[in-house]
Every structure is written in C-alpha cells, then in structure tokens.
Amino acid sequence: MSDLTVSFIQTSLHWHEPEANRQALARHAATISVPTDLLVLPEMFTTGFSMKPHELAEPTDGPTLAWMRELAQGQDAVVTGSLMVQEAGQYFNRLLWVRPDGSYSHYDKRHRFTMAGEHKVYAAGTQRLIEEWRGWRICPLVCYDLRFPVWSRNDPAAPYDLLLYTANWPAARRTAWTTLLRARAIENLAYTMGVNRIGRDGNGHDYVGDSALLDMRGDYLVEVGNQDTTITRTLRRDELLQFRQRFPALQDADGFVVNG
Questions:
Q1: In 3D, which of 60, 86, 81 has the Cα closest to residue 71?
Q2: 195 partner at 20 to 30 Å CA-CA among 11, 14, 36, 155?
Q3: How far is Cα 85 from Cα 102, in angstroms, rounded to an integer?
Q4: Which are the contacts of 45, defined by CB distance < 8 A and separation ≥ 6?
Q5: Would you state the pLDDT for residue 258?
Q6: Does the model's pTM come out above 0.85?
Q7: Residue 259 confidence (pLDDT)
Q8: What topology is assigned to 4-252 in CATH?
Q9: Domain boundaries in the chain?
Q10: Which sign, positive or negative, has the C-alpha torsion 108, 113, 117, 119?
C-alpha cells in the first residue's frame, strides 16, 4: 500500500454565513501546493457550532455538497467535514465524505454535546463510518465523540489506519482536547488527526485551534497552536505496519463490538 498525503484547514468561521465560509475555505484550499489525498475541514464548517438548524440546515444534496464535490474533483482528493443537515423531518450534525468522482458517504455525530443542548436539536447517529481510500482504512468522527473511547475503538480483525476528528472544540477545554487526541492515537495504534477552528463564535465562545496530527505512538507530527493555516503532511504506511508488528497490542484488546 502507498503512503497517504493528508491536508487540513484550521481557520476562523463566519457565524451563520455558509457562503462566506465556503468562499474562505476554498481560498485556503487553493494554497495547497502539492497533490493531496484527503482534505479535512472543521465541524459545522459552514456556520460554526450552532443550535439553529431550523434557520440554516440544508438537505444533504444541497449547495454545500455541490461545493464539496467541486473541491474534491479539483483537488483529486476526498473532502470531509460536518454541517447541519435536514432529512426526513430531523436535523443531523452530519459529516460528509465526498470523493473526487462526486460519490459520497456520511456519518451522523453519535455523541451530542448536552451542555450546549445539541441533544435537543439534532438526532444521534447510530453507525460508525470506516472508509477505504487509496489503500487506507479511515474512521472519521466528530468533536465530542473524542471523549468516548469505546466509539473510537479500533477493530483488531480489520483495523483502521487513520482516526480523525473534525471539531469546534472551545479553548476552555483545550487540555482535554490535546490529552484525548494522544490517548486515542496510543490506544488504537493509528495515525490520529484532530481538526479544530480558531476565533470567537456568535455565542461568545473562543477557540484556539490546537489542530494536530499524531502518529501511532502518540507523538506529534504536526501541532499548529492558534494559527490560521493550511497544513499538508504525508503518512507513511510502512512505519505504521512495522510499529504494529513490533508492538501488537491490538491483539490483546477486549472482545466487544462497537454498535449503535
């Protein structure tokens, strides 16, 4: 299997302004100067983390999916991130996984943040998403899911290689963010990426980013702090496989199954 080149965008978001956010993120994506396989955007990247989907949610096959398809085709890469979606009378914090050929999958955020009332507004997801992309197995999750290790648990029989979290994780809990990202990488023996935002949202909450890419040992490959930036790095497949052979801890994992 080949290596995987991944990119992510850490930036501030325009509050409740989907078109302004799409335009700003497109400008960031245009600065990627080398071929990439995967581009990751923050959680609710069109609006910021908002409890007003009745005003702002789109159907899945709406303008943001069309924009993601165009971006994915132009980059020849998967583009992923979450947004507010309305479907069958319910709202979801839905991550879209959009491929260059225009096809897509989705993951609905499982763990809703009750302190913000997310559970009162958005329906919970029931199924994890494991994507096969260019020879890699990738598990994309959303923000608060990071706090729940069972939901992130790797499967020893068919392990994923990259675990990623797209987030709006506030500055007040940055220690939890950095600590849990390292823990998820270490316990799952997988590359792990956390993509957060910066700036202040319309509710007055501050975000300081701390987006990061870690290897399967829990060591930082990238840690960007509070910068407005676009980062690209290449993940080495042989390093992952060699480490798992030398330290096969997944084979000693408890025998339970992640489900809804």
A1: 81
A2: 155
A3: 18
A4: 13, 21, 25, 81, 82, 83, 166, 197
A5: 65
A6: yes
A7: 62
A8: Nitrilase/N-carbamoyl-D-aminoacid amidohydrolase (3.60.110)
A9: 4-252
A10: positive
CA distance 27 to 113: 30
Q: Which residues have CB under 8 Å from 54's CB, separation 6+?
A: 91
Q: Token pair of 218, please?
A: 């829990």
What whole-number distance in Å separates Cα of residue 179 and Cα of residue 212?
11
> How do beta strands 162-166 and 191-195 pair?
parallel
According to the model, what pLDDT value does residue 166 have? 98
Length of the chain: 260
Q: Residue 254: its pLDDT value, please?
A: 86
- Catalytic residue set: 43, 109, 143
Whether residue 244 contacts residue 18, with contact meaning beta carbons closer than 8 Å, is answered with no
Pairwise CA distance, residues 144 & 147, whole Å:
6
Can you give the chain as a three-state secondary structure string? CCCEEEEEEECCCCCCCHHHHHHHHHHHHCCCCCCCCEEECCCCCCCCCCCCHHHHCECCCCHHHHHHHHHHHHHCCEEEEEEEEEECCEEEEEEEEECCCCCEEEEECCCCCHHHCHHHHCCCCCCCCCEEECCEEEEEEEHHHHHCHHHHCCCCCCCCCEEEEECCCCHHHHHHHHHHHHHHHHHHCCEEEEECCEEECCCCCEEECCCEEECCCCCEEEECCCCCEEEEEEECHHHHHHHHHHCCHHHHCCCCCCCC
Q: According to the model, what pLDDT value does residue 1 have?
A: 61
Which CA distances in Å does 39 have to 71, 116, 121, 186? 9, 28, 28, 23
